[in-house]
Amino acid sequence: MDYIEIFREEFKTSLLNNDRIGIFDIYRKVKNHPIDFDFIEDIMVPAAEEIGEYWDKGEVSLSQLYMSGRICEELVISIFPDQHLLHRGTMNTAIVNFCDHHPLGKKIVCSTFKVNGIPLLDYGHGIDQETLIEKLKRDRPKFLVISVLMLPSALKIKKLKERLLKEGMDTKILVGGAPFRFDKDLWKQVGADAMGITPMDTLNIIKEWGGSCNE
């Protein structure tokens, strides 16, 4: 029996039904299960991506998409309550759904960073290249995390990277999302500097690069 798939389906159903009690019950069941699961990587992220795909097909409402993101954020913060830190200063890492309107994955990454003491400049979702370039010129972050669900959005990162180099900007790009997990070499093809498979993986790479708040 595939327990991960069972828990994932239960979690996804509870998200779509806005069932907070059910969601936290599922988390406790996974945490106490004899088989070792990574709840965020094995359950939350895949379920969130499926909901994003449902919304793209018109099978779920915008309110369901929004509330799913809020609930995931609450759950991540509750999982790591003792790690939450308050930072002051200028943030040097930004995150965006580049040419992509599926924010759930980004919300989970933002929450993971937040509870580990590294807040992000959140540029939102559905941001096109010109708008993103303007924001990067204004804020000058050292690192940019790009989260996408759809392959066409992922492929547009190559032109973004070329434009950044043309503008003389040395912003390092870390990518993540379903297309990059499906094709492990795609991040290289689009000119990214690294790929984060999971939210914690993304966090650790940014830490290695020196991501933090500039005091």
TrEMBL record:
Task: Please state every residue range assigned to the domain named B12-binding.
Answer: 88-215
Give the matching InterPro entries.
Cbl-bd_cap (IPR003759), Cobalamin-bd (IPR006158), Cobalamin-bd_sf (IPR036724), Met_Synthase/Corrinoid (IPR050554), Meth_synthase_dom (IPR036594)
Alphabetically ordered keywords of this record? Cobalt, Metal-binding
Identify this protein by name.
Cobalamin-binding protein
Whether Metal-binding counts among this entry's keywords is yes
Q: Name one Pfam family in it.
A: B12-binding_2
| Keyword field contains Metal-binding | yes
